[in-house]
Amino acid sequence: MNKKLVAALSGGAVLLMALSGCSGGDDTDSKVNNWAKKVCDQVQPQLTKIASANNSIQQATSDRSKPAEVQQTDSAAFQSISQAYKALGTAVDSAGAPPGDEGEKTQQEAVKELNATSTAYAGLKTKVDALDTKDQAKFADGLKGVADELEKLSTSGDHALQRLQSGDVGKAMARQPGCQKPSPSTGGSSAPTAAGGQS
Length: 199
Hints:
- The chain is an all-alpha fold.
- It has one domain.
- The C terminus is likely disordered.
- α4 packs antiparallel against α5.
- The chain starts with a helix and ends in a 24-residue tail after the last helix.
- The longest helix is centred in the N-terminal third of the chain and has 33 residues.
- Keywords: Signal.
- This is Small secreted protein.
C-alpha cells in the first residue's frame, strides 16, 4: 500500500546491521573477546526480533491490507523494535566499558544512541496508533509521514555504534555468532507446491 514505508524499512535496520557488519580478523586479546561475547550473546535475539518486525510491516504494506490491519501490524512492529533497541542498550550498558582507549566514553555514547533509537520507534508507534483508519486517503497520507520519519531515523546517528565496533573490539564482535546478521529465512513459508494447479 505504501511503497515508501517499505523502502524506508529496508534502510531501517541500517543502525543494527552496522552491528553485524565487518568480518573477523586475527585473534585479539581475551579481554576484548570476553567483552564482545558478553554483548553479542544478548544481541542475536534482538536482531531477530527487529528483522521479524520489519518483515511483518513489509508484508502488511505489500499485501494490500486494510488500513486498520496495517495500523495494527505497524504498531506492534514499532513496539517490538523499540523494545529490541532498549534491550540492546541494556546489553551494551551491562557489559561495561570495552577494553581500549576511551572505552567508557564509546560505551556510554552507544548506549545513549540505542536508547534514543528505542524512544524514536516508540514515537512512531504512537503516531501510527493515532492515524485515521476510516479514511483511506488520510491514512495513506499519515503513513507517508511515518515513512518519512522512519527514513530519517535509518539514515541518522549510528556513529557511536560504528565507533564501538572499530578496531580490535569490532573484530572481536564480528567473530561472535551472536553479532552476525540473522539469516533472512525466519521460518514460515515452505517451498511452493504444485497442489494449487494454475488458478
